[in-house]
Write a structure and sequence with these properties.
About 30% of the residues lie in helices and about 20% in strands. It has about 100 residues and is an alpha+beta fold. The protein starts with a helix and ends in an 8-residue tail after the last helix.
Length: about 100
């Protein structure tokens, strides 16, 4: 069975966990090259574990990726974090998910 990365990432960003808690405050394209997700601090560990489960620990192969610490949440550029493992533009078209 083929893994559907688009569906799994979409679910991670939009659906609450089994306790009904959402880890993501918002997400979207902030420019032509960056698709950012704002993750609440309280859910950051669970979010990262879920991202690893979907895409594997290889997301850290290049030494990791940057995150921007903000009030109440951390901003992660998924284009950088996933390093080409997924065409985010197909999963989240820019015209529909512009921030």
């Amino acid at each position: 069975m083929t893994k559907n990365y688009n569906a799994e990432l979409y679910a991670l960003l939009t659906e609450p966990d089994e306790d009904g808690i959402s880890w993501v405050a918002e997400f979207g394209w902030i420019n032509e090259r960056q698709f950012c997700v704002w993750v609440y601090y309280r859910g950051l560990n669970k979010f990262m574990k879920s991202l690893e489960k979907i895409f594997g620990c290889g997301i850290y192969d290049d030494g990791g990726f940057d995150a921007n610490m903000q009030q109440g949440c951390v901003c992660i550029d998924l284009c950088e974090a996933l390093g080409g493992r997924l065409d985010i533009g197909k999963a989240f078209p820019k015209e529909l998910y512009e921030h």
